[in-house]
Design brief:
Helix content: 25-40%
Order of helices and strands: HHHEEEHEHEHEEHEHEHEHEEHEE
Number of helices: 11
Distance between the termini: 54 Å
Number of domains: 3
CATH class of the largest domain: Alpha Beta
Oligomer: single chain
CATH architecture of the largest domain: 3-Layer(aba) Sandwich
Strand order of the largest sheet: 4-3-5-6-7-13
Largest sheet: 6 strands, parallel
Structural class: alpha/beta
Radius of gyration: 23 Å
Number of strands: 14
Length: 366
């Protein structure tokens, strides 16, 4: 079924159990990070994430240069009772968590996994296809509820309704269930108006797959924003990036190599940050410079945007707000009987983060 529990969570659970069972008594030092890396066969960043979670739970504290120590009195405290399991379900694709651990939905899963743990629920990721029995998956895990993330096979929707399992759509719209999405139209109003202020007139757009609701809405938002700014849309500058780095890279390369000079865009925006990273790499591959030759903006506001060169300007919702809203809504469903009044849409507000990948339109194109 493609189930997935992060390695840091496994380490966290193991160390927490040992602390609460007295294997590591109060004020004792845990093994050094290097020892834990060797013991669990993972990188230091994974161990540090598990240790940070133990610090957040008040189970351990750190002494700089000396290691991690168990807090006083923690070994005698029983573990909080686990309330059950939630599923984080995605359609199997090249952009699911198992294939792309840097995508927006992957980062959202890691955040929601921690928040679910704070409510004493376990969150499990699973990929599903048209041929798989979602009812059997719910039964296997004894799942109390499900987050149906991005585009979803219809049989999954039918199953949660038939079994009356608390569920909601996240980053997708489904008329039969509560749906939580970003304010996609507002996002591109922000992005395109910013580019227009900087003098850009020819703007390319890299879209996600046409079957995805977020991709549809972001394309519509781009077109509406271009119209509001009195900018002409060139159909030849609307590209298919399929949500992936690789497809965006290839589409951007092909466009820049074939479009005539008079039509070459001075800015390019994408429907996801991952596709923006692909576009940045394509521009660099062709010997062009961002933002001197072409500005690039993304959608998601991933933290990775701060670490690429140049730093990526991006627009998107607060991932923390998206996660908190989703979990709060599912818990509310769990506490009551689902009804027709649960079938509505929540739009999470977006913000624009201006970084160095966006700059003034080159003077020659003004």
């Amino acid at each position: 079924m493609g189930n997935f529990i992060p390695q840091y969570r496994i380490i966290y659970d193991n160390l927490k159990t040992k602390i609460q069972n007295g294997v590591y008594p109060p004020e004792s030092r845990l093994p050094y990070e290097s020892q834990l890396c060797e013991q669990y066969g993972v990188q230091r960043s994974t161990v540090r994430k598990a240790l940070d979670m133990l610090v957040q739970d008040g189970l351990i504290y750190k002494r700089p240069g000396r290691g991690s120590f168990v807090c006083p009195g923690k070994s005698a405290e029983p573990s909080a009772v686990n309330q059950g399991t939630f599923l984080f379900v995605m359609n199997r694709s090249p952009n699911d968590i198992l294939n792309n651990s840097s995508s927006y939905n992957a980062q959202l899963f890691f955040l929601m996994e921690r928040l679910c743990r704070n409510h004493n629920y376990t969150l499990i990721y699973t990929g599903i296809s048209e041929q798989e029995d979602f009812g059997a998956l719910i039964s296997t895990h004894g799942a109390k509820g499900a987050f149906l993330v991005s585009t979803m096979p219809q049989h999954v929707i039918d199953t949660v309704q038939r079994l009356q399992v608390p569920a909601l759509c996240l980053n997708h719209y489904c008329p039969q269930l509560l749906s939580i999405l970003p304010d996609n139209h507002k996002a591109f109003q922000m992005m395109i108006s910013r580019l227009a202020q900087l003098g850009h007139r020819k703007i390319a757009f890299v879209s996600g797959p046409s079957y995805a609701v977020n991709a549809q809405e972001r394309l519509q938002g781009f077109l509406a924003a271009m119209n509001e700014c009195a900018l002409e849309v060139d159909p030849g500058l609307i590209l298919d990036g399929n949500w992936t780095y690789e497809d965006s890279f290839a589409a951007t390369i092909a466009m820049l190599q074939t479009v005539e000079e008079a039509r070459r865009p001075t800015a390019l925006v994408t429907a996801s940050d991952m596709m923006a990273f692909g576009a940045l790499a394509a521009v660099s591959k062709l010997g062009l410079t961002v933002p001197t030759d072409i500005s690039i903006g993304g959608f998601d506001n991933l933290a990775l945007g701060e670490f690429c060169s140049p730093q990526l300007s991006s627009v998107g919702p607060s991932m923390e707000q998206m996660a908190h809203v989703a979990i709060r809504q599912l818990l509310a469903q769990l506490s009551g009987t689902p009804s027709m009044y649960d079938r509505y849409t929540i739009r999470v507000p977006v913000t624009y983060t201006d970084r160095s990948s966006v700059g003034p339109c080159p003077a020659v194109h003004r």
